[in-house]
Design a protein that fits this description.
The complex is a heterodimer of chains A (about 120) and B (about 120).
Chain A: E1 3-7, E2 10-13, E3 19-26, E4 32-38, E5 44-52, E6 55-58, E7 64-70, E8 73-78, E9 87-94, H1 100-103, E10 107-108, E11 112-116
Parallel strand pairs in A: 2-11
Antiparallel strand pairs in A: 1-3, 3-8, 4-5, 4-9, 5-6, 7-8, 9-10, 9-11
Chain B: E1 3-5, E2 10-14, E3 19-21, E4 24-26, E5 32-39, E6 46-52, E7 59-61, E8 64-69, E9 74-79, E10 88-96, E11 104-105, E12 109-114
Parallel strand pairs in B: 2-12
Antiparallel strand pairs in B: 1-4, 3-9, 5-6, 5-10, 7-8, 8-9, 10-11, 10-12
The chains are: A mainly beta (about 120), B mainly beta (about 120).
């Protein structure tokens, strides 16, 4: 069966510090990968998605970046955190192929709660 | 552009009551997919259902049922005989065929079921 891991689970960082959040998926190959941010009391905002190693698409311009160094690894980074970066970060994956990415449901990880002070 | 509106921010019910969550969407695409996800207090979103824009059949799964009406661009979700374990945030989401990778979420409805 497939599983998705995220770490750390919680993180408190000072403004201006760097960030690295990691997401890994097990039990599937060549998944589509996604990073979302959920601000308090709000829905999810898609930040990045990736359809393959080294392929990253950004949905929202910001001081965050993403990388996919391996097939099932997705990393969210920042060189300098802002207060507005606080939130709940969720990684998700979906099956590529038949039905298309619009059709296939996404499976979410447990999330990382980031507080920037 | 796509938009999903969940007008109800919070709903509180007593156990065994029915609760209906509203979802209204906007899209110019003729082919699209609608989803409902549940986010329990643990934070991880759980997929509940997907609906194809060409399939307006209502669906029932246990105590959950969904009513898709294309004429009113609505995809409502009903929990029958609610239980405390149904307490969660529920998100409606839209994925248009023309923008394969973007799943647009509503703001979510927090459901609290009291014993």
């Amino acid at each position: 069966s497939q599983t998705i891991h995220q770490w750390p689970a919680t993180l408190v960082q000072p403004v201006g510090s760097p960030l690295s959040l990691e997401c890994t998926v097990e039990g599937t190959s060549n998944p589509n990968l996604y990073w979302y941010r959920q601000a308090a009391g709000r829905g999810l905002q898609l930040l990045f998605y990736s359809v393959g190693i080294g392929q990253i698409s950004s949905e929202v311009p910001q001081n965050l970046s993403a990388s996919r160094p391996q097939d099932r690894q997705f990393i969210l980074s920042s060189k300098k955190l802002l207060l507005s970066d606080s939130g709940f970060y969720l990684c998700a994956w979906s099956v590529p192929g038949a039905g298309g990415p619009a059709y296939n449901e996404q499976f979410f990880g447990p999330g990382t709660r980031l507080t920037v002070l | 552009a796509q938009k999903v509106t969940q007008a109800q921010t919070e709903i509180s019910v007593v156990e065994k009551e029915d609760v209906t969550l509203d979802c209204v969407y906007e899209t110019r695409d003729t082919t699209y997919y609608l989803f409902w996800y549940k986010q329990p207090p643990s934070g991880e979103l759980v997929f509940l259902i997907r609906r194809n824009s060409f399939d307006e059949q209502n669906e029932i799964s246990g105590r959950y049922s969904w009513n898709f009406q294309k004429s009113t661009s609505s995809f409502n979700f009903t929990i029958t005989a609610s239980q405390v374990v149904d307490s969660a945030v529920y998100f409606c989401a839209l994925s248009p065929r023309s923008n394969d990778y973007k799943l647009s979420f509503g703001a979510g409805t927090t459901v609290t079921v009291r014993a």
